[in-house]
Specification:
The chain has 20 helices and 15 strands. The protein is an alpha+beta fold and about 575 residues long. Strands 1, 2, 3, 4, 5, 6, 7, 8, 9, 10 and 11 form an 11-stranded antiparallel β-sheet that branches.
Length: about 575
């Protein structure tokens, strides 16, 4: 707390210091704590709110943020310029509220390297080598790890002097193109977005456009090749390694002119012509290329190429060169590539938003002494961003809980249509936890159709379901949350304030609105009980155990597949 106070007093202007200081003090110490468990969660959530406040303060000076991570790189979403984004929820809006007029063309970084793997017989050392190789941020890292690990398992049992079986050796080629940044140079708010702002419907604007929007994108494309050959001994063939590196570097540099002699292929194995010249006293080019296998993965290829040579079988060095050349041309398109990171900008520093939301219009507020005074614009900006992020978090909670109920009902509907003669059939999807076994009170721990159907309808937790079906119990909890927190809180954020229609979004942070002040309510799977939100996970109740078991069953076994 002393550190926070010091930062406030040192970094912010005098007109803002007292407001921030009072906000922090009241936020931390005004919470009424019922018991130790709730003291803990209230303190944690309040400290989170403080940290987010300082994030929001960046808006005052017009700062922007850059984000990467799984939510950005997920293939289930498409980050695009102008699309809304919530920093705290990690979610994208359903569409864009900007009409793009001009965008900048990205610049490129090109990189190619070959990594020789030296630990072919020890899975621990292999793991350390891969982590230290710089491949950890590659989109193919899991594939590389799995491929090499499978070979290590087969080679680990061989003795150092065993010449009867082959030991695998690998080199990894990584061709990478980094593009940064595709940026909005000029854009206008859409008519629908302006309509919501002009009528003071700021809550709908946030739900449609997000608290921030994407101004820039950075994309990444890469081609990963795994080159493998076997030797009778653990030691790598140095001449073979050097020749592979020489050939691959020439392939990448020339992208189309490989002079390795004519060659044929069987099952991805490159076999060179016997007419090739010798490379040293003991190893000919035929020896070097014989038995070499190549596997390729490419990420972030662009469309529109009609001459694709992509094939599951690589027939020669020439065909490998053709694939690399095609992939290289495909990844050079402006919109090609997997989105690697995004730069987001708060709407509050968009000049058109400021004008149409009346953010830059002078507002007044009457204090507790009935004195009317100006309401600072910077406070309006901070309040709007904090309230916007809160809206996005609650919307995400509602969406996730509805999705869980929908998935449950779809799974039960599939099971219900099966005849009773199929109830003893086993499911083939393997469980990664022991939850299913614990649920089944039988010596036979197989999860059958009948047992899954019973677990997802009646449940093994009668105290939690209270005589209701599982889906009905989950919907009951959801509707209690909507009726007692979601609806009152969002209604309060839609009220008029500071002399402006819908001005509650600018007038106060949600933590100062009674209907929104219970910070426990902004977490997943809370229940509404005794006029407040409680978290069963924190109290380790049977309700939490039951809900977790149902989530595991649906996540792992639905939609069901029968043996």
């Amino acid at each position: 707390f002393v550190v926070i106070k010091t930062l406030v007093l040192r970094e912010f202007p005098d007109s803002f210091k007292s407001d921030i200081y009072i906000y922090i003090v009241s936020l931390v110490f005004s919470r009424k704590m019922a018991d130790f468990g709730f003291r803990t969660i209230h303190l944690l959530t309040d400290l989170f709110a403080i940290s987010f406040l300082f994030h929001a303060l960046s808006v005052v000076v017009g700062a922007v943020d850059t984000f990467d991570g799984a939510s950005i790189r997920s293939r289930d979403v498409y980050p695009s310029l102008g699309r809304g984004y919530s920093v705290s929820a990690g979610t994208f809006s359903s569409g864009t509220c900007l009409s793009l007029e001009t965008t900048s063309k990205p610049t490129y970084d090109y990189d190619y390297r070959i990594i020789e793997i030296t630990n072919s017989r020890n899975d621990v050392l292999l793991g350390e080598e891969l982590v230290n190789s710089g491949l950890l941020d590659s989109g193919a890292f899991s594939w590389i790890s799995a491929t090499l690990a499978n070979d290590v398992v087969s080679a680990a049992a061989l003795s150092d002097n065993d010449a009867t079986e082959n030991v695998p050796h690998h080199s990894i080629g990584q061709l990478r193109i980094l593009k940064y940044f595709s940026t909005i140079k000029s854009a206008r708010l859409t008519d629908d977005a302006n309509y919501m702002l002009n009528f003071g419907d700021f809550l709908s604007f946030v739900q449609s456009c997000g608290p921030t929007y994407i101004r820039s994108l950075r994309r990444k494309s890469e081609i990963i090749s795994i080159f493998r050959y076997d030797t009778p001994y653990p030691q790598a063939n140095r001449a073979k390694n050097d020749k592979i590196i020489e050939q691959v570097q020439g392939l990448v540099n020339d992208r189309g002119s490989i002079t390795a002699g004519t060659s044929t292929s069987t099952n991805n194995t490159l076999i060179a012509s016997t007419t090739a010249d010798a490379t040293d006293e003991t190893t000919t080019q035929t020896d070097i290329l014989e038995g070499l296998t190549v596997e390729i993965r490419a990420f972030g290829l662009g469309g529109g190429q009609s001459d694709s040579p992509l094939s599951p079988v690589i027939q020669s060095w020439a065909s490998l060169a053709s694939i690399v050349d095609f992939s290289f041309r495909s990844i050079m398109g402006q919109n090609a590539g997997v989105v690697d990171s995004i730069e987001v900008v708060p709407w509050t520093i968009n000049t058109e938003f400021q004008k149409n939301s009346k953010l830059n219009v002078r507002s007044t507020v009457t204090d507790y002494e009935s004195i009317t005074r100006p309401y600072p614009s910077h406070r309006k900006m901070v309040n709007f961003l904090e309230n916007s992020e809160h809206i996005s978090r609650i919307d995400k909670i509602i969406h996730n809980r509805i999705e869980k109920v929908t998935s449950l009902k779809r799974c039960v509907a599939f099971l219900d249509q099966l005849s009773s003669s199929q109830h003893d059939r086993s499911l083939v999807r393997n469980s990664e936890t022991t939850t299913v076994v614990n649920l089944v009170a039988s010596d036979d721990s197989r999860l059958t159709v009948g047992r899954l159907q019973h677990s997802l309808t009646i449940s093994y937790y009668p105290t939690w379901t209270n005589g209701k079906y599982v889906a009905d119990r989950l919907m009951e909890e959801l509707m209690a949350y909507i009726d007692n927190y979601y609806e009152p809180c969002f209604s309060a954020l839609s009220q008029d304030d500071i002399g402006q229609v819908g001005g509650a979004m600018f007038g106060k942070p949600f933590t100062e609105l009674e209907a929104c002040s219970d910070l426990v309510c902004k977490y997943e799977d809370v229940e509404w009980e005794n006029n407040r939100c409680i978290s069963p996970a924190l109290t380790l109740s049977e309700n939490s155990e039951a809900r977790s078991a149902i989530d595991d069953l649906v996540k792992i076994w639905c939609d069901p597949q029968l043996a």
